[in-house]
Write a structure and sequence with these properties.
The chain is mainly alpha-helical. It has one domain. The protein has a two-stranded antiparallel ribbon with strand order 1-2. Helix 6 packs antiparallel against helix 7. The two termini are 18 Å apart.
Length: 207
C-alpha cells in the first residue's frame, strides 16, 4: 500500500492515477473521477476493516475463554500451549493411561504399530505421551464437550477473518479493474488464464 501511494504521487499527472487510487483505497479513483458509486466501495472497505478488527478481538477473547475454562475444569497448568495440545484436550477425557486417556491411546498405537517389538513400543510411547507437567483430567465428559464447542467457535471466528481478508482483496481488485474501464488513454490490459486448475488474473499497466 505504501509503495502504491508513492507511485500515485510520482505519477499524479498520468491517466493511470484513478487506477492506482482505486487499488490503494477502493472508491478513491471513482470519487476523484466524479463517480458517486465510489462511496459504496469506500463504505465497503470501512465495513470490511471494521469486521476484521471485531473478529480479531472476538477470536482472542474466545481463545482466552476456552483456555481459562480448561484451567478450571481440566486442571491444566498455566502456560503457553501449542494448538495441537489444546486440540487433544477436546478429544480426550484425560492425559493418563485410564479409559479415554490420551496416553492410553498412544500405548495402544505403540502395540498396534510394533506388535512384536517391546523396545520400539516403549520408544514410541516415550516420544509421544504427555508428561505430568502437561497433564489434564476433565471433571466430566460434559465439561470436555463444552470446551470442544468453545474451540469450534474460536476456529469459526478465525475462518471468518480469512474470508474477510479475501473480500477486502477482492474489493481492491474490483475497484482497480473498474477504474481501468473509464481511464482515458488506457493501454492497460486485463486477462484471465487457466494455469493448471487455477485461474490467474493478469494486469498489464503502462505508464
Amino acid at each position: 500500500m505504501l509503495i502504491l501511494l508513492i507511485v500515485v504521487s510520482a505519477f499524479s499527472q498520468t491517466s493511470k492515477v484513478p487506477f492506482l487510487k482505486s487499488i490503494v483505497v477502493p472508491g478513491w479513483g471513482q470519487l476523484s473521477s466524479g463517480r458517486d458509486y465510489g462511496y459504496a466501495m469506500l463504505a465497503g472497505e470501512v465495513a470490511i476493516i471494521g469486521s476484521m478488527m471485531y473478529l480479531a478481538t472476538e477470536q482472542k477473547l474466545s481463545k482466552q475463554e476456552a483456555y481459562e475454562y480448561a484451567m478450571e475444569f481440566a486442571h491444566i497448568r498455566p502456560g503457553d500451549y501449542e494448538d495441537t495440545y489444546l486440540g487433544h484436550l477436546s478429544h480426550y477425557d484425560s492425559s493418563g493411561y485410564g479409559g479415554g486417556g490420551y496416553n492410553a491411546h498412544i500405548r495402544e498405537l505403540a502395540i498396534e504399530n510394533y506388535p512384536n517389538d517391546p523396545i520400539m513400543q516403549q520408544q514410541y510411547i516415550d516420544n509421544n505421551i504427555y508428561s505430568d507437567e502437561m497433564a489434564w483430567n476433565w471433571d466430566s465428559s460434559g465439561d470436555r464437550g463444552t470446551y470442544s464447542k468453545m474451540r469450534i467457535h474460536t476456529q469459526d471466528l478465525k475462518d471468518f477473518s480469512k474470508i474477510a481478508v479475501g473480500v477486502m482483496i477482492l474489493n481492491h481488485l474490483v475497484s482497480g479493474i473498474d477504474a481501468l474501464r473509464f481511464g482515458k488513454d488506457n493501454n492497460s490490459g486485463l486477462s484471465i488464464q487457466m494455469r493448471g486448475d487455477r485461474p490467474v488474473v493478469s494486469l498489464d499497466i503502462s505508464f
